[in-house]
Every structure is written in structure tokens, then in C-alpha cells.
Amino acid sequence: MSQLPVPAVDAVPAWVGEHLGHLHRDDEVRPSGRFRGGQAAADAALATLDITGYASRRNEVLPESRRGASAMSPWIRHGLLQLPEVWDAVADAPTRDRSKYRDELLWQEYSRHLYARLGTRTRSALRAEPARGRARWQEPWPRDMLCLDTVLGELDDDGWLVNQTRMWVSSQWTVRAGHDWAAGDDELFARLIDGSRAANRVGWQWTVGAGNGKAHGFSRWQVRKRAPGLCERCPLAADCPIEAWPEDQPTRWLEREPLMAADPSPGVTAGPSSVESGGTPEAVWLTAESLGTTDPALAAHPDLPVVFVFDEPLLARLQLASKRLVFLAETLAELAEDREVELHLGSPTEVLAGRPVAVTHAPVPGFRERARVVAPVEVHPWPWLRRPHAGPVSSFSAWRKGLPRP
Ligand SMILES: Cc1cc2nc3c(=O)[nH]c(=O)nc-3n(C[C@H](O)[C@H](O)[C@H](O)COP(=O)(O)OP(=O)(O)OC[C@H]3O[C@@H](n4cnc5c(N)ncnc54)[C@H](O)[C@@H]3O)c2cc1C
């Protein structure tokens, strides 16, 4: 357990190498070629967000100029942009694009609700047996397929993929190559700069058919449609291993998971609805779920020092891509230009033991476990787009029907 010096923003990659070098999977620290951490980068992205054409182009892959994806996810994932403000930011967009974009923000919210309610239960199939290819490929993501090589190259360079290619790699891993989806979920999660257990799990569960009984089949057809010209340059063009659709597999439904139908404790799932206070905080505890300057606990205490703990046991286990650690550290380094920031490496519960802190509730099981021990003296509500309800989360549409009107 140690306190770390706070780096200057420009010095972050070297700082990650020096202090967190044993906690990532890369040979050397590799910042994202595309995404910078910090509120300034998040605000700039939001200020220039233009979703015109989103509805018709969100699934396009190549050339990049055809893409409609907004690439906001790294900042949304880490709470630098909260869903309600992104929702509001597209109020003046063309109706069809606004409506499609807000549907996707709701998918993000749905994933968060589902994960907040079911927690680690989402590690196993929720409703149906995953459609797993019968003939197991030795390598789930062969790089001699140009489609996969291109996508995995982008993942390694930027730590980010459009939704369409996330579906390609997850379907390829399990529906085609017959590998265990949960191992693929871990692998992609670790390599994404926006990797979130909530959205990544829902993405995998739905792609492999475990969420709705209907797997997404990855085929040459999608590559030709979404990335025209790519197949023609592939060394396997004349012998494409995904030329045909994957074999159809009958849906095998699993025993009903009661939590998918109803939540016996929606208040626990959602966290506090107003500030819960039992003392005077002496510091603000920031978590990786909510690192923005509008984090409710941070904003409520502009004069208190800020504490962030790089969770050493967790990070040692996850072995994330170094670009994620760079993104987090850049965010904290930038914050330290305006506020007193303390960085620690160790176990959050040990570092924070006995310290009266204010924190924003985070709707993930890891936060609940740690907060039980840390016992913050002040807990601020999570800034939900829609507060979780007790009704079904068995499908996006069932969940959506249960939402209160905005
Ligand atoms: C296998 C798989 C794994 C995924 N893993 C993650 C993950 O780890 N973290 C993550 O944030 N998203 C994940 N997604 C969801 C989605 O692919 C990304 O949120 C999206 O591609 C991010 O790019 P964007 O910001 O350009 O999205 P846009 O299309 O511009 O959408 C705007 C925002 O809406 C939300 N959103 C869009 N599509 C989805 C979706 N299908 N599910 C949930 N939210 C969505 C995101 O917050 C996104 O930033 C995954 C999807 C799949 C199929």
C-alpha cells in the first residue's frame, strides 16, 4: 500500500510505466492513438457532437468516413459524461437520428440496470444456452482473416471499436470458433478503453444468443456490406472461412432466473435517491465509475481533497491494456491541476479505512462490497438517466415499458 506522486498530464505514460507497470498486459505502455482522458477532452467531444446521419450510418465500419458512431463511450464509461447530459446534448438533432441515438443511450442505461440488479450473476448465460460453434477453431480470432486483423488492429491502437465490429468479434469467438463466451468477454473487456462489465456482458450475452435466444451470426456478408473492399484484399479471399452463415442452432432455453422478472429490492439496486449523510467528510473518494468534475460528491465539496485508489489486487487480476490505465491517470492528473488529489496504490478498503469520505454511489457490485467496509459518511445518488424499477429486465423492450415517463 503506497501513496503515489501525482503526474503532470504529459508525463502520464512514463508514470504508468513506473508505478503501474506490473498491472497491465502490454510489453510497454501504449496510450490510445485516439482517446485522451480528462474532462477537457470529454467536454470538447460533447461540444462538437453531431449525430446527423446516425440512424442510417451507425453500423458502418469502413471507410471510417462512412461511420455514424459518435465515439463518446470512453468518457461515458468513466462518468466524465453522464447519460442525462449526453441525452440533452442531442435535443436539436434531426428527429430520426435523435431517436435512434437516445435508444442507444437507453441500451447503456439498460445494461447498467441489469448489472446493478444481477451483478456477477451476469457471468453466466441469462436466458438461453449460448450458440457455440460445434467445430472448435484453435485460434478464436485468426489474424490471417483481414476483417479480424483490421478490427483487432484498431482495438490494439485505439482501445475502441464500433458496435458492429464488437458484434463481429464476439460472434466470431463463440458462434463461429466455438470458444467459451465468458473468456471472450474477459478478453475484450480488458482491451477496450471503455470496457464496462455492464455493457460488455450485455453485448456478449445478446450476440451469442444467451440474452434472447437469437445469436448474431458473423459472416462475410456483413464484412462486404459494412466494410466494402476489405474482403477483396484478404489473403483468404478465395477460401473465406466465414463465407456461409454459421450453422443454425435450436434455441435451448434455460431455467427462468427470477431476478430477470422482478427485483425484490430496487432501492438497493438503484442506491440512494437523495444524499445520505452521517457525518462530516474530510475527503472525496472518487471511483473509476465516476471521474468527471460533475461527479455529485466532488461537486458538493469543492474544497476537500480528492482520493483515488488504483485497486492493486483487482488490477493485478484484470491485466487491462495499458491505454486504460493511461486514460484514468490522465483524468486524475488533469483534475489535480485544479484540486488537491491524492493517488494511492493498494486495496481501497485498506487505504480508506477510518477516513470520513464523501462518495457517489456506483451501481456495480465492486463498489457495494468496498463501500460496506469503507463506510463513507456521505453518499450521493448515482446520476441515473432513468431510476431503476422493480419490473422485468428480461428484454430491452420489457424493461423499457416499465420505465416511468421522462
Ligand atoms: C460484444 C459487445 C461488447 C460491448 N462492450 C461494451 C463496453 O465494454 N462498454 C461500452 O460502453 N459499450 C459496449 N458495447 C456497446 C456498444 O458497442 C458501445 O457502447 C459503442 O460501440 C460505443 O461507441 P460509440 O460511443 O460510438 O456509440 P454510439 O453508437 O455513438 O452510441 C452512443 C452511446 O450510446 C451507448 N450505446 C450505444 N450502443 C450501445 C449498446 N449496444 N449497448 C449499450 N450502450 C450502447 C454508449 O454509451 C455509446 O457511447 C458492447 C457491445 C457489444 C456488441
UniProtKB/TrEMBL annotation:
For molecular function, the Gene Ontology terms on record are: deoxyribodipyrimidine photo-lyase activity; DNA binding; FAD binding
So where does FAD get bound?
A: 54, 101
List, in alphabetical order, the GO biological process terms annotated in this UniProt record. Answer: response to light stimulus
Domain Cryptochrome/DNA photolyase FAD-binding: start-end pairs: 104-218
Matching entries from SUPFAM superfamilies are given as: Cryptochrome/photolyase FAD-binding domain
**Keyword set, alphabetical order:** FAD, Flavoprotein, Lyase
Listed Pfam families: FAD_binding_7
Name its co-factor(s).
FAD
Cofactor annotation comment: Binds 1 FAD per subunit.
Q: Which PANTHER family match?
A: CRYPTOCHROME (PTHR11455), CRYPTOCHROME CIRCADIAN CLOCK 5 ISOFORM X1 (PTHR11455:SF9)
The name this protein carries in UniProt is Deoxyribodipyrimidine photo-lyase
The protein's organism comes out as: Klenkia soli
Q: What is the lineage of its organism?
A: Bacteria, Bacillati, Actinomycetota, Actinomycetes, Geodermatophilales
